[in-house]
Amino acid sequence: MALDSDSIKWLKSRFKHNIKFGEPMSRHTSLRVGGPAEAFVTPENVEDLETLVKWSWERGLSYLIIGKGTNLLVKDNGIHGIAIALTKCLKKIDQIDTNTDGVMVRAMAGVNLKSLCSYALKQGLEGMNFALGIPGTVGGGIIMNAGTSHGSMENVLQSIDVLLPTGDTRRIKKEALNFEYRKVSWRPELTDGHRDQTVILDGRFCFYPSDPEALKRTAREIIRTRKKRQPIGWPSAGCFFKNPASGETAGRLIEMAGLKGKSVGGAEISSKHANFFINRNNASAADFLALMDLAEKVVLKKFNVHLEREVKIVGA
Q1: Which of 309, 282, 265, 316 has the alpha carbon at shortest distance from 26?
Q2: Tens digits of per-residue pLDDT, 73-115?
Q3: Are residues 214 and 299 in the same domain?
Q4: How far, in whole angstroms, is CA 256 from its chain's centroid?
């Protein structure tokens, strides 16, 4: 459902300088592509977020929750409805408990993963080093069960607080979360059947006191290795495809298919890491979609492997 004049009037009145209409999503995604969102809102606080989500739901307006847009490919025609950025209203980190089982830290969904990693390092807390170098926010990291060979969100996440479109909030504990490779889900009844419209507000993480200097040494080595293996300095969305459950990695399959360095328009499969698709020359979303389609078809033909997308594709 498109925004009508009354909806636009209410949004302007309620969010003033925190709303833009026809805002290019290329300004808010790490791939630097994407057409305009009908409305792009950056709520100031949790109360504004709750008001906006409930208002949108009651009027049947679609809304897309984004953090830093690091795992997002927005199509060139843009987004119908409202894009809601959490980076202003959900940006707090605090220590909420210490006991024999470790140190409990709450990080809100709009916090950069980099900031949470830095917080843990400064406090001498072990557990988040696996996420060093992963772009994006805590909320995105949770819903994707972000991870590397050093660990994943599943290892440290204890619970999440979520906002339902009705305005109610719930806490879902770890036992009720279903962790999969690059995915977290829960039973629909836990959020009254509104799972797809539910907003993650924060995560509670359990870390453990450790030697700060040893943690920093490990962190430096992890970052050094990532910089060596991955294309730094080009717009990308991180790994484009999930690794298959067995056999070669997605990047290795794409490389063996002879596609390393292949380009469509301004989009290119990185010559450094074939699971990174980079915006080398003012690419469009259509360029990335065509390159993605090519990789999927060639890998399927050569190796009979269906590549599963890790990047979320949205838009009209």
Answers
A1: 282
A2: 999 999 999 999 999 999 999 998 877 678 999 999 999 999 9
A3: no
A4: 28
Q: Which residues are catalytic?
A: 182, 239, 310
Residues in a beta bridge with 313 = 73
User: Which residues are paired to 82 by β-bridges?
Assistant: 39, 63
Q: Which of 89, 94, 136, 110 is CA-nearest to residue 237?
A: 136
Last residue of one domain, picked from the residues 228, 251, 279:
228
Q: Which of 60, 85, 110 is the last residue of a domain?
A: 85
Type of residue found at 116: L
Element (H, E) at 287: helix 285-303
On whether the pTM is more than 0.90, the answer is: yes
Under 8 Å between Cβ of 115 and 139:
no
Query: Mind listing the pLDDT tens digit for each residue in 137-161?
Result: 999 999 999 998 889 999 999 999 9
Do 113 and 56 sit in the same domain of this protein? no
* 303 in the same domain as 184: no
Q: Around 203, how many Cα atoms within 13 Å sit in the side-chain half-sphere?
A: 26
The first and second tokens of residue 207, run together, are 């870390």
